[in-house]
């Protein structure tokens, strides 16, 4: 049962009876059928808090809460993100009949550091979206949804502050690097156009690229 915390109180009472009596009646039927099942239930709600609010039955809770397993959200197990991305990428490609694709290093870095508020369901949707809309073998940063790209820097800085490891120069360099790379990619690495977009001279752009270790397209 997925999202068991969403069941109405009336349905909870029926589920409880099934678990206690180990029998059911089909809808419209009159025959009582004995059952032998193992129940696995999932929820993203705090059921003990729901009990206090009167929206979840305590007797059903103690029936289903025999072996509880807590699965941390993706933001607390980032080492799993590349494995899950690869799994969903293979699944979507197989279903769509497209050729093999993979995430670029920069795109993968953004996805690993994204907070994933919708967890695995959101990840599967993001992978399906980028594969559907991208015709290249490599999925780049510009192919990712806006929410992933726009939240990356804010999330990166927040984690640095919370960990107590904030380095102002490092954060400033990361900010400059992201903006410069975005401008270069937008202008197909034509530095004169990228500099004009950023409102700086080409000489200043080249200086910052060298300082931050950003390669030109030919060098890359």
Tell me what the structure shows.
12% of the residues are buried. The chain is elongated. The protein is 56% helix and 5% strand. The mean pLDDT is 85. The protein has helices at residues 9-21, 47-53, 58-64, 81-96, 105-113, 119-133, 146-163, 168-186, 191-198, 202-212; strands spanning 23-25, 32-34, 102-103, 138-139. The longest helix is centred in the last third of the chain and has 19 residues, at 168-186. It has 220 residues and is mostly helical. The protein has 10 helices and 4 strands. The strands form 2 sheets. A two-stranded antiparallel ribbon has the order 1-2. The chain has a two-stranded parallel sheet with strand order 3-4. The protein starts with 8 loop residues before the first helix and ends in an 8-residue tail after the last helix. A hairpin with a 6-residue loop joins strand 1 and strand 2.
């Amino acid at each position: 049962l997925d999202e068991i915390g969403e069941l109405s109180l009336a349905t909870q009472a029926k589920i409880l009876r099934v678990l206690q009596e180990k029998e059911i009646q089909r809808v419209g039927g009159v025959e009582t059928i004995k059952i032998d099942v193992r129940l696995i239930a999932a929820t993203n709600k705090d059921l003990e808090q729901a009990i206090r609010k009167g929206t979840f039955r305590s007797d059903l809770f103690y029936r289903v809460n025999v072996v509880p397993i807590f699965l941390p959200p993706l933001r607390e197990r980032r080492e799993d993100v590349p494995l899950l991305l690869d799994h969903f990428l293979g699944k979507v490609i197989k279903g769509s009949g497209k050729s093999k694709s993979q995430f670029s290093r920069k795109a993968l870095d953004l996805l690993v550091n994204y907070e994933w508020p919708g967890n695995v369901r959101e990840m599967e949707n993001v992978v399906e979206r980028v594969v559907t809309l991208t015709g290249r073998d490599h999925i780049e940063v510009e192919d990712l949804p806006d929410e992933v790209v726009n939240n990356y820097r804010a999330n990166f800085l927040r984690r640095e502050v919370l960990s107590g490891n904030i380095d102002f120069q490092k954060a400033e360099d990361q900010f400059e690097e992201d903006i410069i790379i975005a401008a270069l990619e937008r202008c197909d690495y034509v530095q004169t156009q990228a500099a004009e977009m950023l409102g700086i001279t080409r000489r200043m752009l080249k200086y910052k690229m060298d300082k931050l270790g950003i390669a030109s397209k030919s060098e890359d």
